Amino acid sequence: MSKVQESILKTRLRNGLEVRLKEVHTAPLISGWVWYRVGSRHERAGITGISPWVEHMQFKGTPDFPAGVLDRAISRDGGYWNALTWVDWTSYFETMPADRIDLALRLEADRMVHSEFSPSEVKSERTVIISEREGHQNEPTFRLTEEVQAAAFRVHSYHHSVVGDMADLQTMTRDQLYEHYRRYYVPSNAVLAIAGDFRARSMLKRIRELFGAIPRQPRPEHHSRPEPAQTGERRVTVEGPGETPFLEIAYRAPHASDSDFHSLAVLDSVLTGASNLNFFGGGISNKTSRLYRALVEGEVAAAVRGGLAATVDPYLYSINVIVRSDHTPEQALEVLDGEVARLLDQPIEAEELTKAIKQARALFAYNSESITNQAFWLGFSEMFADYAWFETYLECLSKVTPQDVLDVASRYLLPKKRVVGMYYPMMDDRGG
Q1: Helices then strands (H, E): number in the chain?
Q2: Phi, psi (5° rounding) for residue 419?
Q3: DSSP letter assigned to residue 367
Q4: Residue 263 near residue 404, CB atoms below 8 Å
Q5: 372 CB contacts (<8 Å, ≥6 apart)?
Q6: Which residues of 14-45 are buried (b: 16+ CB within 10 A; e: fewer)?
């Protein structure tokens, strides 16, 4: 057992709540996260976007913790809080001074059970949710990504964007929201992950006091509909306002626990610069990547980036290009395809591979250091694998060979397994 493993307390309460505790005594801070295994993957037509809406409702307060009072109390105590909803999960966190964390624990135990979903709050939040959706629709990159994602998934529920479809946001009822909350916000579907300046046994005792009395309920079942194999390239085009063309390529990608994932992560670092798997982390320069040199230094594009995500089911590896206004998406695609062909034809030199692995490792390590990020990974890794995945990630990257990169490139970067999305700016777009 590694030293890292020895510092983690892992247990499960009788009601099914999984608990992960990590003592980190470098600063008088504690970050606590509650992760629920529910996201857009668990939605169906008619209730798309319900998971982030429920997340919003969790900030409306409970009888014991009115919303405005709670927000002020956390700020007054020097803490901050937020929440995230994505395809596989919803999470809530508070990072507080170590001697103030009890407020966060009491809050999370309370809103796991006692959120009210009052009709007036649901009505008010509908306006906010719809406004957010409309704001996204004004962004060319959102519109393009949504079309690419919908084309990539015809059967699997990764088909729809996390924010949901406007038709559902306009018609969803309070009872549907509350039923979703009561079904998925149960101890057996949650992971409580806490990292920071505390003693694990004392913390566990307090967790049992606050969360242990919540009744046990069955963990909700979910059966994903597997996406059929794609047998040919799919293309989508979007026209809209602006002056900038965009290109997005989405290749099929393995789920995070697949043995190909680490090799694809290194390939991503070679092509576009390492992707950040942490939703709270920053990035590093990708100016040494192949596509940056070919597209940006070649004056075809203003920027290029890759996107690889850790997911439960097979998802997408995307390459996003901001095309210069004096070039077209087709020209950018031609350059990109040329670089992929070169990757397949010529083995990667050891020096380039070493640099790509070093950058991927550095980004991962940098975005795992803070107390908040350590607590993040403690729970996030449990959503698609387990904490051992996080512990061994850097080691697995280091073992990737040039042949591994060539193998995943030849199997995943295929035209017949991708969706090509192109955004064309219309200078006088009037929605017609």
Answers
A1: 16, 11
A2: -115, 130
A3: T
A4: yes
A5: 31, 93, 95, 280
A6: ebbbbbbbbebeeeebbbbbbbbbbbbbbbee
Angstrom distance (rounded) from CA 290 to CA 287: 8
CATH fold of 3-211 reads: Cytochrome Bc1 Complex; Chain A, domain 1 (3.30.830)
Work out whether the CA dihedral 93, 22, 181, 41 comes out positive or negative. positive
> Could you read off the pLDDT of 405-430 as tens digits, one per residue?
999 999 999 999 999 999 999 965 44
Report the CATH fold assignment for 234-425.
Cytochrome Bc1 Complex; Chain A, domain 1 (3.30.830)
% of the chain exceeding 90 in pLDDT: 89
According to the model, what pLDDT value does residue 4 have? 40
Whether residue 109 contacts residue 13, with contact meaning beta carbons closer than 8 Å, is answered with no
Closest by CA to 59, choosing from 115, 119, 133, is: 115
pLDDT-derived band at 281 (thresholds 50, 70, 90) equals: low
pLDDT at 384 over 60: yes
CA distances from 322 to 10, 14, 141, 252, 337 (A): 44, 51, 9, 21, 16
How is residue 179 written in tokens? 């039923």
pLDDT tens digits for range 86-132? 999 999 999 999 999 999 999 999 999 999 999 999 999 999 999 99
The bridge status of strand 301-308 relative to strand 315-323 is antiparallel
Query: What DSSP state is assigned to residue 186?
Result: S
**What b/e string do you get for 357-378 counting C-beta neighbours within 10 Å, with b at 16 or more?**
bebbbebbebbbebbbbbbbbb
CA 169: distance to chain centroid? 22
At 122, the amino acid letter reads V
Domain range summary for the chain, segments of one domain joined by +:
3-211, 234-425
Which pairing describes strands 190-196 and 418-425: parallel, antiparallel, or unpaired?
unpaired
- The yes-or-no answer to whether 3-211 and 234-425 have a common fold is yes
